[in-house]
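wait is this the right file?? whatever heres the structure
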C-alpha cells in the first residue's frame, strides 16, 4: 500500500510539473520572445556570403513557421483584448477634471486600462513579427531566384573550344592528388572497420544485404504476382497493385541491402566524416536508382504484356525494356560524381567536364527513347489498323521534352554547361515524377472502381456495408477518385517545380496571396470554402443516416400510418438540408445578415424567373404539414386518378391504373379541387346501374343481385349491400346495385366479378336483361299515314297494346 501511495504521489508530481511547463510554454510573452530570437537567427543566417541553396530553403521554411506561430499567438490574444476593451467600455471614460469619483472605480479603470495596454502591446508585437517574417520569406525567395538565375546564366568554355579540354588537363595533377588522398582515407577506414573487431558484424550484414537484394527480392516479387493473381478480386486493380508491389520491392530490398552493407562497414562508427558523408549519399542514391529501375521495369512489363499498365504495344515495350536500368545507372553515376567533386574539392574545369558529360548522356538516352517510342507508335499494327492516338498530355510532354533536349544541346555547345546540365536533369526528373504520378493515379482509379463501382467485383459487399444504392456508390467512387487524383497531380506538380529553383513554399506563398477572394463585401478564403464543403457533405451524410434510422427503426414502432411516416421522413430531410446549408454558409464566412442580403439581392430573380419553382416548393411543404393528401392516398385530380407514391420538393408522383406515373406540380394540390378517395373513409363503393325489361319480376331480380354480392368475399357486411330501383321509363327499369369494399383500389375488380356473377344468375333463371324491340312494317295507306313516329304504319313496341 505504501508503494502504491508513493507511485501516485510521483505521478501527481510529474503531471503537475508537466502542466507547469506547459503553462510556461503557453506564456504569450515568452512565445513572442522565442519567435523574435528565431527570426533574428534567420536574418543573420541569410547574410552569410557562403550560403547554399539548401540552406536558403531551410531558412525559408523556418521563416514561414515563425510567421504562422506569431499569427496564432496574435489570434489567441485577440479575445483577451476584446474582453479588456469591453471591460473599459463598461466602466466608461474617466470623469472630467474637477469631478470626483469613487477611488475603487478609479483603481478598477486603471487596472483595466493597464491590462488592455499589455495585451494590445503583445498583439502588436506578434503582428510585427508576422509581417517581418513574411518580408524575410520574400527576401529569401528573391535570393534563391537570383542565385538560380546566376547559376543558369554562368558561361564557361564551349566543348568546341580548346580551353574546354586544356584546362582539365592542367588541373588534372591537383585533382588526381585530391582523389588519391580521398581514396586513401576510404581505404584506411575500410581496413580499420575490418580489423577493429567488426568482422562478424560486417560479414553478417554483407550476407543479409546481398541476400536481400537477390533472393529475397526475387521471392517477394513472386509472392506479389501470386497474391495479386489469386487473392485479389478480378479487375484492373490486380495490375496496378502488382506494379506498385514490384516497384516497392525493388526499391526497398536494394535500398535496405545497401544500408545493411553500410551498417556492417561502419558498425563501430569508424568512418571519417568525408567517408561517412559519401557513404550515406551513396546509399540514398542507390535507393533512388533502385526505385527508378523498378518503376520503369514494372510499367513497361516487357515479358508480361497482360500485366502492362500503360497502353504500349509489345514492340514498344521490347524496344524500351533496357532504358529504366540505363537511366538508373546514369542517375546513380552522375550523382555520385557530383558528391565526389564536392567532397574532394575538384577544380572548376573537372566539375564543368562532369556536368557536360551528364548533360550529354542523359539527353542522348532520352532522345533515343523518344525516337523508339515514336517509331513504335507510328508503326501499323498486324491487322493493318492505325495505332490509337496519344493523349493530349502525352503529346505535349513529348514536345516539351524535345524542346528541352535541343535547348540542352545548344547550351552545351555555346558554353552554358550549367544550363545544359540543368535541362537534362530536369527532363529525367520530370519523366520519373510523371511515371510515379501515373502509377499512383491508376492505382487510385482501380482501387475505387473495385471497392465502390457499380460493376466492380466488390460492389455487392460495399452495398451491404453502406446500405446505399449501387449508383450512389459508383458516384461516390468517381468523386473520391477525382479528389485523390487532383491531390496527386498537385504533389507531382510541386515535385516537378522543385527542380526549377522553386518548391512547395513558393506554391504556399502563392496560395497565401490568393488566400482571400473578395467579391463586393464578401471575403472567400480557400480554407473556409474547403471546410464548408466538408461540413456540407458530412451534414448530408448525417441527415441521410438519421432519415434511415427514423424510417426503418423508430417510426415503424409507432402508431403512425405509413403515409404519415413518409411525410415526417421527407419533412425531416428538408429541414436537415436547410440546417446543413446554413451551417456550411456560416463556415464559409457568410453571417446571417450576409445571407439575408444575398436573399434580398436574389428576390427579384426569384420573383420572376423562379416563381413557379418556389411556389411548388412551398406547396410541397404545405402538403407535408397539413397532409390534405399523403403517400398512399387514392386521389382524383383533373384527368389523373391513382395512388400517391411520393411527394417530392417540386412535384408529386401519382401512379394510375395502367402502372404509369403522372408528375403533378405541388401547387395543383393547393389551387385545384382534389378528390381524396381515402382521406376520411378508406372504403370503396361499388355502384352498378343495371337496366332490365319492364316485365321482369323486380323482387326475383333483386334477390339474385343480393345473393351475388353476399357471395363475394371482398364485399363488406357493413355497410350492408343494397339494391334499389333507380328509374322506370317506357323502355326499361333500372336497378342501382351498391356495395362497399375495403378500398377504392378494389372497386374495379369487384365490380367486374359482380357483373359476371349477376349476369350468370339471371340467365340461369331465364331473366333477360333487355328484350329487343320488334320492327313491324305494314304496306298500304297514304304517305302521310305511313310516315312519322305516330303514323298508322309505325312499328309497335313490345310493351304496346296489340289491340290499339
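ok assuming it is, sequence goes like this
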Amino acid at each position: 500500500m505504501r508503494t502504491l501511495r508513493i507511485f501516485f504521489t510521483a505521478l501527481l508530481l510529474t503531471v503537475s510539473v508537466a502542466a507547469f511547463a506547459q503553462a510556461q510554454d503557453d506564456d504569450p510573452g515568452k512565445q513572442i520572445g522565442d519567435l523574435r530570437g528565431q527570426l533574428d537567427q534567420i536574418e543573420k543566417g541569410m547574410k552569410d556570403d557562403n550560403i547554399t541553396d539548401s540552406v536558403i530553403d531551410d531558412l525559408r521554411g523556418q521563416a514561414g513557421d515563425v510567421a504562422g506561430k506569431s499569427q496564432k499567438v496574435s489570434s489567441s490574444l485577440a479575445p483577451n483584448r476584446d474582453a479588456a476593451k469591453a471591460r473599459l467600455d463598461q466602466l466608461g471614460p474617466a470623469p472630467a477634471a474637477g469631478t470626483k469619483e469613487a477611488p475603487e472605480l478609479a483603481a478598477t479603470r486603471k487596472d483595466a486600462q493597464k491590462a488592455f495596454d499589455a495585451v494590445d502591446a503583445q498583439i502588436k508585437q506578434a503582428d510585427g513579427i508576422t509581417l517581418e517574417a513574411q518580408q524575410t520569406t520574400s527576401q529569401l525567395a528573391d535570393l534563391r531566384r537570383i542565385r538560380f538565375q546566376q547559376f543558369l546564366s554562368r558561361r564557361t568554355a564551349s566543348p568546341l573550344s580548346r580551353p574546354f579540354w586544356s584546362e582539365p588537363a592542367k588541373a588534372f595533377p591537383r585533382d588526381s592528388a585530391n582523389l588519391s588522398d580521398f581514396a586513401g582515407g576510404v581505404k584506411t577506414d575500410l581496413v580499420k572497420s575490418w580489423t577493429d573487431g567488426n568482422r562478424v558484424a560486417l560479414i553478417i550484414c554483407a550476407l543479409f544485404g546481398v541476400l536481400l537484394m537477390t533472393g529475397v527480392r526475387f521471392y517477394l516479387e513472386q509472392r506479389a504476382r501470386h497474391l495479386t493473381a489469386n487473392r485479389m478480386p478480378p479487375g484492373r486493380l490486380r495490375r496496378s497493385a502488382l506494379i506498385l508491389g514490384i516497384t516497392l520491392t525493388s526499391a526497398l530490398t536494394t535500398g535496405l541491402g545497401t544500408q545493411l552493407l553500410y551498417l556492417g562497414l561502419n558498425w563501430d562508427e569508424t568512418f571519417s566524416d568525408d567517408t561517412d558523408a559519401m557513404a550515406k549519399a551513396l546509399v540514398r542514391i542507390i535507393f533512388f536508382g533502385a526505385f527508378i529501375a523498378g518503376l520503369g521495369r514494372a510499367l513497361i512489363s516487357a515479358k508480361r504484356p497482360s500485366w502492362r499498365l500503360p497502353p504500349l504495344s509489345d514492340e514498344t515495350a521490347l524496344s524500351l525494356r533496357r532504358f529504366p536500368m540505363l537511366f538508373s545507372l546514369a542517375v546513380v553515376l552522375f550523382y555520385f560524381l557530383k558528391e565526389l567533386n564536392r567532397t574532394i574539392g575538384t577544380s572548376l574545369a573537372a566539375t564543368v567536364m562532369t556536368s557536360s558529360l551528364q548533360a550529354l548522356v542523359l539527353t542522348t538516352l532520352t532522345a533515343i527513347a523518344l525516337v523508339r517510342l515514336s517509331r513504335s507508335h507510328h508503326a501499323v499494327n498486324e491487322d493493318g489498323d492505325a495505332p490509337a492516338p496519344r493523349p493530349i498530355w502525352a503529346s505535349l510532354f513529348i514536345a516539351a521534352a524535345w524542346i528541352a533536349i535541343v535547348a540542352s544541346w545548344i547550351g552545351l555547345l555555346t558554353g552554358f554547361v550549367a544550363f545544359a546540365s540543368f535541362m537534362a536533369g530536369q527532363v529525367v526528373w520530370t519523366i520519373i515524377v510523371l511515371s510515379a504520378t501515373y502509377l499512383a493515379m491508376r492505382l487510385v482509379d482501380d482501387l475505387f472502381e473495385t471497392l465502390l463501382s457499380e460493376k466492380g467485383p466488390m460492389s455487392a459487399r460495399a452495398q451491404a456495408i453502406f446500405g446505399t444504392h449501387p449508383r450512389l456508390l459508383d458516384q461516390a467512387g468517381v468523386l473520391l477518385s477525382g479528389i485523390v487524383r487532383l491531390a496527386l497531380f498537385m504533389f507531382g506538380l510541386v515535385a516537378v517545380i522543385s527542380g526549377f529553383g522553386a518548391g512547395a513554399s513558393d506554391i504556399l506563398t502563392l496560395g497565401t496571396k490568393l488566400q482571400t477572394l473578395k467579391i463586393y463585401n464578401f471575403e472567400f478564403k480557400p480554407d473556409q470554402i474547403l471546410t464548408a464543403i466538408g461540413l456540407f457533405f458530412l451534414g448530408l451524410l448525417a441527415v441521410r443516416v438519421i432519415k434511415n434510422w427514423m424510417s426503418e427503426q423508430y417510426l415503424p414502432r409507432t402508431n403512425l400510418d405509413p403515409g404519415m411516416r413518409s411525410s415526417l421522413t421527407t419533412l425531416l430531410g428538408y429541414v436537415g438540408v436547410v440546417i446543413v446549408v446554413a451551417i456550411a454558409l456560416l463556415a464559409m464566412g457568410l453571417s446571417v445578415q450576409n445571407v439575408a442580403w444575398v436573399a434580398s439581392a436574389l428576390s427579384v430573380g426569384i420573383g420572376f424567373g423562379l416563381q413557379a419553382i418556389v411556389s411548388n416548393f412551398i406547396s410541397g411543404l404545405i402538403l407535408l404539414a397539413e397532409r390534405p393528401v399523403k403517400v398512399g392516398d387514392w386521389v382524383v385530380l383533373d384527368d389523373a386518378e391513382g395512388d400517391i407514391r411520393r411527394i417530392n420538393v417540386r412535384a408529386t408522383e401519382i401512379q394510375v391504373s395502367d402502372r404509369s406515373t403522372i408528375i403533378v406540380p405541388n401547387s395543383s394540390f393547393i389551387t385545384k379541387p382534389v378528390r381524396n378517395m381515402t382521406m376520411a373513409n378508406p372504403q370503396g363503393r361499388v355502384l352498378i346501374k343495371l337496366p332490365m325489361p319492364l316485365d321482369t319480376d323486380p323482387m326475383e331480380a333483386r334477390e339474385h343481385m343480393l345473393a351475388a354480392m353476399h357471395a363475394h368475399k371482398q364485399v363488406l357486411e357493413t355497410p350492408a349491400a343494397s339494391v334499389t330501383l333507380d328509374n322506370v321509363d317506357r323502355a326499361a327499369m333500372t336497378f342501382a346495385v351498391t356495395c362497399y369494399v375495403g378500398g377504392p383500389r378494389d372497386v374495379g375488380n369487384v365490380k367486374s366479378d359482380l357483373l359476371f356473377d349477376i349476369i350468370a344468375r339471371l340467365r340461369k333463371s331465364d331473366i333477360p336483361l333487355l328484350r329487343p324491340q320488334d320492327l313491324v312494317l305494314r304496306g298500304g295507306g297514304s304517305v302521310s299515314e305511313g310516315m312519322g313516329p305516330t303514323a298508322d304504319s309505325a312499328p309497335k313496341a313490345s310493351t304496346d297494346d296489340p289491340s290499339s
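Confidence is low (pLDDT under 50) at residues 1-25, 782-791, 793-800. so i think its the right one actually
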